[in-house]
Amino acid sequence: MTAQELQRTSIEQSSQSSGDVAVLKKSLTTDSKQPTSHVVESGFVSSDEADAQALAALGIEQQFLRDLGGLEIFSIGFSIFAVVPGLAVVFAYSLEGGPVAMVWGWLVASIFIVTIGLMMGELASAMPSAAGIYLWSYKLSPPWCRRQISWTVGYLSTVTSTTALASVNWATAQIILTTATIKTEGSFTYSNGAVFGVCTAVTLLETMICCLSTKAVGRAELLFLALNIGLILAVVIAVPIATPGEYRNSASFALGDFETGLGWNGGFAFVYGLLGASWTIANFDSLTRLSEECSNAQVAVPRALYQSISIAGVFGTICLGAITFSMGTDLEAISDTDLGNPLAQVFYNSLGKGGAIAMWIFIILAQIALGTSLLLASARQVFSFSRDDALPFSGWCKTVRANIPINATMYTAFVTTLFTAISASSDYSSSAIFSVSIVSMYLGYSVPPICRYGFYDYNKDFRKGPWHLGRFSFVIYLISVVWMVFMTVIAMFPASSITSFSEANYAVLVIAFCLFVTALYWVFPFGIGARHWFVGPPVEQDPSLRDQIEPKPMTETS
């Protein structure tokens, strides 16, 4: 039997090697007093078998190879929270508030975002499944409402996954075309149609990469990690050193200047600048989507979550500090640049045309790595929701080939392309998709913690995983929910206080429409509506729990 065949049989069998024993012991030392979701009656089991048992405890069959380790999961997170590529996308938003909004706004937002990662880490350790927040919402809700809640959260999560990838790939296409603008010093311009064409090609490339084996993608993620670290070092070291004296700023300006370029008053201009970090350090549940392909998932996934978020927050603050010291004081000239991207103008001023183009090429590669990592996780979300027959064409989407959700990957890419087509209709449409990805994300993320403590009597015996927050759970959950509600409201505001009807932020209408369609699909009569047939995700195979997942009769269903 070949090594690859042995690896594939590890889904059903596990070795009793001393190395496996060491891995298991290490995972259990996270909290020796806290029961884990896998129980071993005698002897030891391998990490893969323990993971499979934890999954089986949720009523889910192991279908994927666990070819991802803790480093690969961290690399995926760091690629999704891509600091420098993210700055290239959101720099224009933060710039309008000046250096204060850029540097300190990023730092403040990062601190609160870490609480979301901690909250998700605890839930991911307790319920390690690709279903993520959809499964958590179901498990933490009482029987009378769990199907409706998980149904809504599942669709919110699907909207988040596809709109986030659409906004990322749309930005990637713009960055690619900006390279030509830099090369021609502003004479090259492009239309939304050109952006859509490049965006579609980028999505196709990412789809091809994600259809490779999990092990191959995991190795690629290590290269993506090195690429992002290299970009951070270039911004922090090369840009300040190369910046001509005329563009170097004092500490009082770089860390203390405040602007109100969007027409908002000072306080709201700072608050609006928080969206930069909120869009860049986002889609945290992407790591939880890979729980079924990660070894020692109950510890590796939550650890990678808070580590990657924390490091992205720190490095983002440092990078923005380096930029504010090196961009000069004429913020209006940077904002109105002919190059089409304010950060490109900063690099052009500091590094010259050649240096700016070189930096931009590496940003393009990192942005494609971001999209690939996001598609990898988004496809798992679509697969897990289809596994419970919730999405159209679920039978096709949940088919796994070569231990990879290839069909779900293509489905996700197709829906993403539809959203990018909407973005091509106008500049304001692309801004709406940007806002929708944040609003739907935070709405969905807030449901599990609210259910955890909102239905406290039902969850008073909640069984934590080996990685948990202990006595600080409630406080961290509360802070994370308040922050998410706050940023949801902010994301619905238009970019400027002086806004015409055509320039308004229609994210609230898009979200309302999605929720309306989701609710309509639920209540529709004649046996078509999901209330008649949707049972939600699997639960433990305990006969006493079957009444919790059987659909209620039509007369009893609200």
What features would you describe in this structure?
This protein has 558 residues and is an all-alpha fold. The protein has 23 helices and no strands. The chain has a single domain (64-463, 479-524), classed as Amino acid/polyamine transporter I, CATH 1.20.1740. It has helices at residues 3-8, 18-28, 47-56, 70-80, 83-95, 98-126, 133-139, 146-183, 192-210, 214-242, 251-256, 266-273, 275-280, 285-288, 297-324, 331-335, 342-387, 394-397, 406-423, 427-454, 456-459, 473-491, 507-523.
The coarse overall form would be globular
CATH topology: Amino acid/polyamine transporter I
User: What is the percentage of strand-forming residues?
Assistant: under 5%
> In total, how many beta strands?
0
Major sheet description: none
| H and E string | HHHHHHHHHHHHHHHHHHHHHHH
Q: Number of helical runs?
A: 23
Q: Which structural class should the secondary elements be placed in?
A: mainly alpha
Averaged pLDDT, please?
Answer: 84
- Oligomer category: single chain
- Distance from N terminus to C terminus (CA atoms, Å) equals 55 Å
What is the CATH architecture annotation? Up-down Bundle
Number of domains: 1
From the alpha carbons, calculate the radius of gyration and give it in angstroms.
24 Å
The first-level CATH class is given as Mainly Alpha
Helical residues, percent: 55-70%
CATH homology-level superfamily: Amino acid/polyamine transporter I
Uncertain residue ranges? 1-43, 541-558
Transmembrane segments: 73-95, 101-120, 222-242, 262-284, 304-325, 357-377, 408-426, 432-451, 472-494, 506-524
Keywords: Membrane, Transmembrane, Transmembrane helix, Transport
InterPro entries: AA/rel_permease1, Amino_acid_permease_CS
Subcellular location: Membrane
